[in-house]
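User: Here's a structure from my thesis project, written as structure tokens. My advisor, Dr. K., wants to see whether a designed sequence matches the one we expressed. Can you design one independently, without my sequence as a hint?
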């Protein structure tokens, strides 16, 4: 492999920082990667509680997250991924379970049969959903700036169809209510994740905390490639002089030829000299509430809910060898309004709802609970169209840098791939 002499620093050890380092190393660069927290993963990372790692938020993905999965393959970290081979979603409403699933694995029949099997809607409503999906797959960039909700209404989707199908899929995917999702974003997401993929899709998730899946393999990868990882090292300032960037950190003060900011938007503004007046920032929150019970409360890995405030719940029953505690996490997307409520209120309200919806008897005890707020789980900016430019030596990556796709782990990796392909020889 050719070696490249330029010294490069990556600030941020989230998915985009990690992916950028892999792509650069493959091109023969040595990199130094700085992460302010003690563990990797950023918004897909974890916190430590009772000496155990717990994901900041439940993350799901699809087999069509090709770039994301490829990075994990390169880091030999796919062992703990649960890859859904077939579409199979249980939707619960008023204690009754309905299924979005297909025995057929060939695209687009898998999609058609899944929707046809979904008895939570009337037959003619299911047909109308299939027709709307077909129309969406044929749309190129839409000229008007209407929302996904308006588009659905214009295309014969009634409130029941919106609530029981579109909201279940789209609110978590975009972390946004349907009236706030631009139709072009919806077209792009459905195309990249489903229509252009043209294969079978099922829900995928991690079998253990993402930062644990990554950490050792990534450390080894960095070491093997003569690069450096600095954890717990927050960069507070960047100075430019004599064609070099000096990074000011807690322990390190090193000079680089090029710097890649793989941080959130606010830190990119503070460190990277983006004009804050030019940027219109919008963020949305996600809340995850964990409950540990002394008995198993669901058999499924996940259930989504319609007509309930629970939205989606996930269990980790299957991946524990010695089960004494049975964990359920409630994942609440587009949670801007809930973020203002106290932990006590949210935990108590959602525990009551969970017990009612799942019919959990009083004999089943709640061992403990934990609420994790991510007020800026997703972030978008308008203002800068071309953040990265050829003649510059400071670059930006991250899910927020790709404007027409929602913030996902795949978008984060895609931003890294595009940057390295375009600006690094
Ligand atoms: C609760 C929650 C649930 C989610 N669910 C899903 C899901 O189901 N599926 C999905 O695809 N996506 C999901 N996402 C979104 C996904 O996590 C993000 O799109 C992705 O992780 C973004 O990666 P990133 O590298 O672009 O940014 P980040 O993860 O934000 O990484 C930026 C990193 O930079 C570090 N940093 C910032 N400033 C500095 C500094 N000055 N010095 C050093 N380091 C610094 C930060 O600590 C952080 O680690 C979810 C996000 C959250 C919060």
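Assistant: Designed independently from the structure alone:
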């Amino acid at each position: 492999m050719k070696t490249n002499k330029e010294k490069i620093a990556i600030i941020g050890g989230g998915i985009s920082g990690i992916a950028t380092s892999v792509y650069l190393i493959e091109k023969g660069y040595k990199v130094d990667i700085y992460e302010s927290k003690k563990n990797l993963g950023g918004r897909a990372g974890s916190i430590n509680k009772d000496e155990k790692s717990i994901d900041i938020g439940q993350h799901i993905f699809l087999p069509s997250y090709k770039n994301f999965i490829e990075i994990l393959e390169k880091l030999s970290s796919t062992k703990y991924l649960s890859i859904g081979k077939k579409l199979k979603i249980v939707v619960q409403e008023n204690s009754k379970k309905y299924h979005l699933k297909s025995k057929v694995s060939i695209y687009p029949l898998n999609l058609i049969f899944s929707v046809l099997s979904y008895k939570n809607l009337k037959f003619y409503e299911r047909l109308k959903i299939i027709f709307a999906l077909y129309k969406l797959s044929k749309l190129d960039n839409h000229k008007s700036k209407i929302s996904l909700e308006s588009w659905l209404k214009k295309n014969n989707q009634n409130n029941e169809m919106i609530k029981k199908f579109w909201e279940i899929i789209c609110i978590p995917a975009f972390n946004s209510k349907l009236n706030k999702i631009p139709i072009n974003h919806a077209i792009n997401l459905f195309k990249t994740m489903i229509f252009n993929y043209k294969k079978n899709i099922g829900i995928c998730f991690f079998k253990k905390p993402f930062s644990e899946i990554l950490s050792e393999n990534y450390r080894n990868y960095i070491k093997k490639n003569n690069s450096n990882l600095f954890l717990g090292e927050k960069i507070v300032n960047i100075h430019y002089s004599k064609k070099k960037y000096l990074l000011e950190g807690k322990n390190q003060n090193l000079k680089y030829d090029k710097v890649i900011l793989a941080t959130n938007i606010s830190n990119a503004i503070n460190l990277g000299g983006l004009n804050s007046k030019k940027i219109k920032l919008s963020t949305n929150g996600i809340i995850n509430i964990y409950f540990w019970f002394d008995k198993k409360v669901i058999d499924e890995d996940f259930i989504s809910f319609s007509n309930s405030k629970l939205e989606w719940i996930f269990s980790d029953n299957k991946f524990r060898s010695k089960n004494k505690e049975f964990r359920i996490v409630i994942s609440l997307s587009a949670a801007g309004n809930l973020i203002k409520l106290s932990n006590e209120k949210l935990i108590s309200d959602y525990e009551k709802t969970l017990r009612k919806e799942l019919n959990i008897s009083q004999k089943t005890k709640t061992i403990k609970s934990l609420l994790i707020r991510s007020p800026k789980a997703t972030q978008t900016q308008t203002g800068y169209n071309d953040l990265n430019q050829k003649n510059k030596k400071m670059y930006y990556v991250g899910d927020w840098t790709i404007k027409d796709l929602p913030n996902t782990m795949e978008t984060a990796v895609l931003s890294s791939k595009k940057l390295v392909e375009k600006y690094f020889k």
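When you compare it with your expressed construct, this may help: The chain has a mean pLDDT of 93.
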